[in-house]
Structure formats: structure tokens, C-alpha cells
Design the sequence.
């Protein structure tokens, strides 16, 4: 009798404990679901906040760019006004330029080789003439590029060249026919700014790229040939237009058509310029730049740009 009573009491206690634990588990599950719901709502709010912060950051960056633009415009027109009396400038600078030399090996075969030359810039009292001199005579079309380069240099220094002649001398060690003349535009812009500001150009840093009137630097050809020539001439860093750290080269593809006859065709292959140079023994850092300010940050010594 006592045993049955004890079993009954034990069962009642066990049921009570199970009911209590079940109630606790149910309560915890409800609370857990509530917390998950709260966390989900908070995650949505955080995501919205991040999106709003991203938009605000973008607006802030745009506002900073606009302020910088107007600051540069103010400095430009202020200096232009101060210099409107036409005070002639005197200055000199030089920069390495790279181009592509055409080699006619025979009647059917033409090859290309990079060549390094010097571009000397002289600022002398005058009436705004742009003069291009080549030593010796080389087939390189610079006149249009130099005019754009001078205009960009005026814009970014705030100094008028209206009473100054800009004399550009292209000096090569040999008489060559050179293609891709406009590709020296960025380098010459740097040299003109160097002559105006009296800042030296780092001669271990080379650049290739056209110059546009808004200061942007455009793409050119012959990147591999120019990079190799630069490396051979002591260049440590080679600045190339945006998107040209990789380029295409022609590689031979040999096909055996039978009876000992083979046909060689050429196909384009995209390569990383820096890695390709390393594979053939040249250690040259390739850096992409998109505008003249980025180029000045690398090339001018003690630059304030």
C-alpha cells in the first residue's frame, strides 16, 4: 500500500516537473522566436541605415569633389587674372619619352622596337608660340599634342603662357621613323608643368599616354615595346593609361598539315605586362593612371599636387 502510494506520488511529481519543464521550454521557444523577429527587424534597420550611410557618403564624396573642382577653378582664374598682364616666364625641364620605332627587315617583314628619347621644354619670353624641334629629324607628330599639353599645364598651374613661347626639343640618339606621336602628350605635359613650377622630374619614372584637354590620359599602342625600352634605359616605374596594364601580343601557332608541311599563324593573347616583362628578365613596376594629377603625384619631385 505504501509502495503504491509512493509510486503515485513519484508519478505526480514527475508529471508536475515535466509540465513545468514543458511550460519553460514553450516559453523559451516563444521568447526565442520573439528575439529572432526582433533581430530580423534590427537587421533590416541596420541594412537600411547602411544603405542611407552609403548614399550620404556618396553625396559627401561628390560634394568634396565639387568643392575641390571649384577651389581649383578659383585658383586658376585668380592666378590667370594676376598673370593677365602677360608677364613672360622663363623655365626649363626635360622628361624621358618612349615611342615605337618601325624596322623594315625586308620587303615582306616589318617589326617594331621601343625607343627612348628626351623631350626638353624651354619657356622663353614671347607671344604664346608653340615650337617643336627634333634632333635629328624623326617622324613624330607632336604639334597638336603639345598645344593640348600647354593648355592643360595652364589650367592646372593657373599660369598664363600668353607671353611665353614654349619650345619643345625631341632629342634621339639616332635618326628614326617613330609612330604613335601623340603618346608623348602626357610626358610633355608633365615637363611643361615642371618648367612652370620649377619642380624636377623623377627620371626613373617613365610614362606613355596621350593628353586630353580635360587632363585625362588616353590609351596608346606599343605598350610592350615601350616598357622593354624603358626597362633597358633604367626605368623603375612605368606609368600606363588606365586599362593598359594588360595588353595583347601576337603569339605564333604552328600547325602540322601533313607530309612534313607546317603552317605558322599568329593569334592574339592577353597578357599582364609586368608579369610578361619579369618572364623575360625585366623587373619593372607597371602602374595605371587615368589623369595628369595622378601622373604628377608620381613624377614630380616634392610635388604639391
Sequence:
Amino acid at each position: 500500500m505504501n509502495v503504491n502510494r509512493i509510486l503515485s506520488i513519484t508519478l505526480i511529481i514527475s508529471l508536475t516537473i515535466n509540465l513545468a519543464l514543458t511550460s519553460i521550454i514553450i516559453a523559451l521557444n516563444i521568447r526565442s522566436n520573439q528575439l529572432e523577429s526582433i533581430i530580423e527587424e534590427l537587421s533590416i534597420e541596420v541594412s537600411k541605415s547602411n544603405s542611407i550611410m552609403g548614399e550620404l557618403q556618396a553625396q559627401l564624396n561628390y560634394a568634396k569633389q565639387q568643392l575641390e573642382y571649384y577651389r581649383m577653378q578659383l585658383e586658376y582664374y585668380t592666378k590667370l587674372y594676376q598673370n593677365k598682364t602677360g608677364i613672360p616666364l622663363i623655365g626649363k625641364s626635360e622628361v624621358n619619352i618612349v615611342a615605337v620605332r618601325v624596322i623594315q627587315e625586308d620587303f615582306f617583314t616589318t617589326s617594331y622596337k621601343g625607343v627612348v628619347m628626351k623631350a626638353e621644354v624651354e619657356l622663353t619670353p614671347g607671344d604664346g608660340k608653340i615650337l617643336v624641334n627634333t634632333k635629328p629629324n624623326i617622324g613624330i607628330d607632336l604639334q597638336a599634342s603639345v598645344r593640348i599639353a600647354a593648355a592643360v599645364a595652364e589650367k592646372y598651374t593657373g599660369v598664363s603662357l600668353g607671353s611665353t613661347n614654349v619650345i619643345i626639343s625631341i632629342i634621339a640618339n639616332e635618326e628614326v621613323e617613330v609612330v604613335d606621336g601623340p603618346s608623348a602628350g602626357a610626358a610633355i605635359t608633365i615637363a611643361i608643368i615642371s618648367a612652370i613650377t620649377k619642380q624636377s622630374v623623377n627620371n626613373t619614372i617613365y610614362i606613355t599616354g596621350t593628353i586630353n584637354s580635360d587632363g585625362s590620359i588616353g590609351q596608346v599602342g606599343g605598350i610592350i615595346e615601350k616598357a622593354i625600352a624603358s626597362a633597358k634605359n633604367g626605368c623603375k616605374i612605368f606609368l600606363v593609361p588606365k586599362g593598359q596594364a594588360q595588353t595583347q601580343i601576337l603569339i605564333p601557332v604552328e600547325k602540322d598539315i601533313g607530309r612534313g608541311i607546317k603552317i605558322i599563324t599568329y593569334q592574339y593573347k592577353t597578357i599582364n605586362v609586368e608579369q610578361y616583362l619579369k618572364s623575360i628578365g625585366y623587373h619593372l613596376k607597371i602602374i595605371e593612371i587615368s589623369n595628369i594629377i595622378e601622373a604628377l603625384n608620381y613624377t614630380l619631385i616634392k610635388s604639391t599636387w
